[in-house]
Structures are given as C-alpha cells and as structure tokens.
Amino acid sequence: MTEQRPVNEVTATKAPTLPDAQTVTDVRHYTDRLFSFRTTRPASLRFRSGEFVMIGLLGDNGKPLLRAYSIASPSWDEELEFYSIKVQDGPLTSKLQHIKPGDQVILRPKPVGTLVHDALLPGKRLWLFATGTGFAPFASLLRDPETYERFEQVIVTHTCREVAELTYSRDLVDNLKSDELMQELLGQEHLAKLTYYPTTTREQSPRMGRITTLLKDGTLLEDMGIDGISPDTDRAMVCGSMGLNLDLKEILEGFGLEEGANSDPKHYVVEKAFVG
Ligand code: A2P
C-alpha cells in the first residue's frame, strides 16, 4: 500500500496472544455504518485476490465469534485490509467497530471464494458489480495486476444509498489513478483500462439509480459506449445483497452468460456481501 499511515509503536512490540491472532495496524471510519481496518498478515497466508477468510473476536462466552470477510487488500500487500459494515446490534460488528491499532483480531488463515480469476473463462471485458460492502473483494482485484493483464477493459460499478458510502471505493480508485507507486506496480496503460461507475439510490448524486435498473434500461451500456453484453466478450463478478445478486444473475443470464465456479470456469460469478 502506498497511503501514508502513522507508525504504530504498540503494533511493533505487542505479541499476539490469541490463537490465530493478528494485530490491527490501522482503522478508518467512513460513515456511522462503514469502516475499514488493516491487520498484520500471517507469513504463511497465501490467497487469490477476491477470496475471503473468517475474521472475528472472542465473544463474551470466551469462544471465537467469526464471520466471513473478503480480503480487500491485494495478494502482494504485506498487510491485510478489510472493509466492514457496522451493525449496532450485530453480534460481531457491534464490537469490531471499536477496534483500534494495537488490538488483536482472530483470523483463520484458510482463504476461499468464487470471486477469483480462476472461476472465469478468458474474455475481453470484466464487469465488477458491487453494492455496499460488496466492493471489498473488488478492492483486492482492482489492485492486482492480473486483472488488467487478463482483460482489455475493466468496469467497476458501486451502488450505495448515500454519497458518503462511496468514499472507500472512490478513494481507492483515485489512489490507483494518481499514486505513482500504484502506477508503477500496475502499469499506467493497465490502469487506463479501468472505469469506475458509482451510483446512489437515496441521495442526489451525478449518477443515480440501482445498477440493475441502469443495466436493464440501457443507461449503463450507453454511458460506457458498449453495444451489448455477450458471453463471447464479457465476464462479470457480482457482490452485494441477496436481492442484488439474484436480480443481476437473471439479467446476466438474459444476456447469455453462465455462472462459473473454481472447478468449472464460465462467464460470471457471484458472492454475497457480508451483512451482519
Ligand atoms: P435501494 O436504496 O434502492 O434499496 P443496502 O444498504 O440495503 O445494502 O443497499 C445498498 C445498495 O444496494 C442500495 O443503493 C440499494 O438500493 C441497492 N440494492 C439493494 N437491493 C438491490 C437489488 N435487488 N437490486 C439492485 N440494487 C439493490
């Protein structure tokens, strides 16, 4: 990562005491519902960009309280990054939202998931459709050079209720496009393939509407100057609420795309964003 972070001396000296514990190195709050955090990375942890791991804290009963979290950092990053919702009465996130640098979180180092390049056939164009915290796996994939090596065009859409909820994705894409180190790492000509398409549904912004609506009524394709979506050229990854995933599956299948898996790569893949 290239962003400036204050050095945390506590982090450097505090030894993990929980099983599978990692130390929090940075926490950022975006809204009263969203935050991101970074942790140390176990030396042995290898993962494919887009995968998730189980993350958590010790519950009141002393047992680990774990949830599936997409790793938002790319596989080359020496730390791990996660992007999370805060649910005030959520068993995990009501507590997790209060973590600070130097604290420990539990991380089960067994990455899995279907939002990975291996689950897609080669193609020309990659669509990444996210709502809310569903952007997390794409934060990883967008910082992975393989994403740009595999495709001629990469379009990431992010739909949230309010403008402030787009901060994480907007900052990430801005950083990709403006940071010299990122340009060096990913290649300027690679980053030129990327288009960010943010939309809001409940607050006024330059582009409004559910992505499903904008896809069905032709607005998205028109804005992108694309004639249509086809299994010959287009690949898609979808990460959002159950409703979004189901609606987008139907739309993509209407274009003739078929759902892929690690063992059977095809045209699109879907995973539910963490919501608890
Ligand atoms: P909307 O405001 O119209 O419900 P949430 O915060 O509930 O997870 O929603 C995140 C974003 O996903 C919101 O902008 C929401 O739009 C949108 N959304 C929720 N369900 C769907 C769906 N079935 N299809 C498309 N967009 C959806």
What does this molecule look like?
- It is globular, with a radius of gyration of 18 Å.
- It has helices at about 10-15, 95, 135-140, 145-150, 165-180, 180-185, 190, 210-215, 220-225, 240-255, and strands at about 20-30, 35-40, 50-60, 65-70, 80-85, 105-110, 125-130, 155-160, 195-200, 235-240, 270.
- The chain has about 280 residues and is α/β, with parallel strands linked by helices.
- It is built from 10 helices and 11 strands.
- The model is unreliable at about 1-15 (pLDDT under 50).
- The structure holds adenosine-2'-5'-diphosphate (A2P).
- Adenosine-2'-5'-diphosphate binds near residues 211, 240 and 243.
SSE topology:
Layout: H1 9-13, E1 21-31, E2 34-40, E3 52-58, E4 64-70, E5 79-85, H2 93-96, E6 104-112, E7 125-131, H3 136-141, H4 145-150, E8 153-160, H5 167-178, H6 180-186, H7 188-191, E9 194-200, H8 211-216, H9 219-224, E10 234-240, H10 242-254, E11 268-272
Parallel strand pairs: 7-8, 7-10, 8-9, 10-11
Antiparallel strand pairs: 1-2, 1-6, 2-5, 3-4, 3-6
Bound molecules: adenosine-2'-5'-diphosphate.
Adenosine-2'-5'-diphosphate binds at residues 131-132, 159-161, 201-202, 210-212, 240-241, 243-244, 247.
